[in-house]
Design a protein that fits this description.
There is one protein chain. By secondary structure, the chain is mainly beta. It is globular and about 55 Å long. The chain has helices spanning about 135-145, 145-150; strands at about 30-40, 40-50, 55-60, 70, 80-85, 90-95, 105-110, 115-120, 125-130. The strands form two sheets. Strands 1, 2, 3, 4 and 5 form a five-stranded antiparallel β-sheet that branches. The structure holds zinc ion (2 copies). One zinc ion binds near residues 101, 103, 121 and 126.
Length: about 150
């Protein structure tokens, strides 16, 4: 969300260069599923609901890759909801809508206050990654001589 005390810095990275290692619900339950691999990596497992159907969905842990595996049938453009498999809390982002299609988004907690979010409309691949704590990130970048050299 826009915050007067924050600036948004966009960093372009090569596609599929990042992998989610630690995702959790807002109650701190890990969503990482080492028993269900996608492309050789532990997937991110959440409960998915589409109308009256519920099941599990295994999300591709590679950021920007969508080799997801779903237990239930969801039609193209169908709108789903995600929940924590451990405690059942909704994973719908409270303050974030998809900027491409306007649908609600899910949001998963990352270590150090970051979040990863994605559109809940099947087939819409809009996604967002927010790394925090921004100040610490800046500090760590400042340890390298690189940050200034990019400006
Ligand atoms: Zn939970
Ligand atoms: Zn969307």
């Amino acid at each position: 969300m826009p915050n007067k005390n924050r600036e948004i810095v966009y960093v372009e990275i090569p596609s599929k260069a990042l992998r989610i290692h630690h995702a959790a619900c807002s109650n701190g339950h890990s969503l990482i599923c080492p028993d269900h691999l996608i492309n050789g990596y532990a997937s991110v497992c959440v409960k998915v609901r589409y109308q009256d159907n519920e099941g599990l969905i295994y999300l591709d842990p590679i950021y920007g890759s969508f080799c997801n595996v779903t237990e239930i049938q969801v039609p193209d453009r169908g709108l789903v909801e995600f929940f924590c498999p451990s405690c059942g809390i909704s994973l719908t982002a409270k303050q974030q809508l998809c900027t491409e299609c306007g649908a609600p988004m899910f949001e998963l907690a990352l270590p150090r206050g970051g979040t990863v979010a994605g559109c809940l409309r099947n087939g819409c691949h809009f996604h967002l990654l927010k790394l925090a704590d921004g100040v610490k990130l800046l500090d760590s970048l400042a340890d390298e001589p690189t940050w200034d050299s990019f400006l």
